[in-house]
Amino acid sequence: MFSSLAALSLPGRRTARTAATALVSAAAVAGLVAGAGPAAAQDGAGGQGGATATIGGLKTHGTAVIHGEGGDQEVPAGLFEMSVEGGGMLQTYCVDVQNPTQTDARYYETPWSGTSLGINKDAGRIRWILDNSYPQVNDLAALAKKAGVRGGLTEQDAAAGTQVAIWRYSDHTDVEATDPQAERLADYLEKNARGRSEPAASLTLDPPAVSGRPGERIGPVTVRTNAGGATVTPPVDAATSGVRIVDKEGEPVTEVADGTQIFFDVPEDAEAGTSELAVQASTTVPVGRAFASESRSQTQILAGSSESTVAATATATWAGQGAIPALSAEKNCTEGGLDITAVNKGDAPFTFSLLDAEYTIAAGETRTVTVPLPEDRPYDFTIRGPAGFEQRFSGVLDCRTQSATTGDTTQTLGEPAPATAVTPTPNPNLAETGSSGATPLIGGAAIGLVVIGGAVLVFLRKKNEG
Q1: How far is Cα 262 from Cα 67, in angstroms, rounded to an integer?
Q2: Longest alpha-carbon distance in the chain
Q3: What CA–CA distance (Å, rounded) separates 207 from 201?
Q4: Can you spell out the DSSP letters for 232-299?
Q5: Which stretches within 119-172 are classed as H helix?
Q6: Strand pairing of 21-26 and 31-33?
Q7: Mean pLDDT throughout 149-156?
Q8: 347-376: per-residue pLDDT in tens?
Q9: What is the structure's pLDDT at 20?
Q10: Is 438 helix (H, G, I), strand (E, B) or coil?
């Protein structure tokens, strides 16, 4: 059953290439059919660890009416269900009514900073609503009494009223529940909501990427989780590479808990290379965690979780000399881009070119650079470095609800049945609603980069929105 539960951007420079210079190859999708999104990001930008789930659609819902300049629009409002990879179920509400839900979209547990919640001053009020309404409060008689709802609440009323109250803060839209009991609950929740902090992730590894020299214990990587314990899976090539996962004393580690520090123990005679470990646990995901999709499906926020499988990975890079880079990434909706954190534990600078800028990470330095990206556009690029180092970054930056971006009248949920959107002016950047066989085309930006000899020429074409 469900539980009640600063980035620095460097200026572009032109310098001579060295052995530590990284070559960047990029290919962004120019057009993306909804429901068939890009491959999962290898950098973990789709999520910094935690639960991965597939959305199944609205399960408990009523209806609501959105009032806009183009007229009134009736939409379904209520709880979604998601199936967790590895086992478990999640219940979620939508926090992005302007965008459609794509059929069978894959979602990742995501920090608020990587979604529209990160730039929403009322995000904490949404968490209060989740903690104080259905399904966290499953005594509907008590909830109705507290909200002053005469005649009681059904599950459908409670779900619809909770979703409406959330939309008023997530999308700042004029919306009301069609059922009087649900509307009374929505009013109560909206009026009494107070700010609360973002909940911690169910499982993360900090940092997700480390680097060092052979013969050293490379790390530490710290486990952060609300689970009672977690299992460590060593690198797949551990038997041949000799890489072990150990604690700070050098003892092999297979089981960890919150706060445990683990290291990659790399043999002294190992050639330059990389390795990856995985940590997995079973736990209830904290209420209020955001879930975002890389297929441009509307952002969700967690309302309830069964015991579910959560996982995270960490990588290590090593070399005997030269630059020894480690890269990780996280979406930054405040700055409208992707934060790439680069660590260089080598004895030479690590230089890489990305789009129209060149970045140099000095020996022994850690730096975060923000790569600006267009909203709602797929990105896909790879940074390459010495000794075969390669790191790919792919995904979609989805930081704003459409009303915050354009002021257009809403595009609505597609569950349980398609609805016709009412807009004063057609907007080509919005997908058609519904999860029917008609799949919308989401416009994309094409990013191309051609490597000629030792120089990298960057060509960037971006289709303007609207």
Answers
A1: 53
A2: 76
A3: 14
A4: EE--TTHHHH--EEE-TTS-B-SEE-TT-EEEEE--TTPPSEEEEEEEEEEEPPPTT-EEEETT-PPP
A5: 123-131, 140-147, 155-170
A6: unpaired
A7: 95
A8: 999 998 887 788 899 999 999 999 899 988
A9: 36
A10: coil
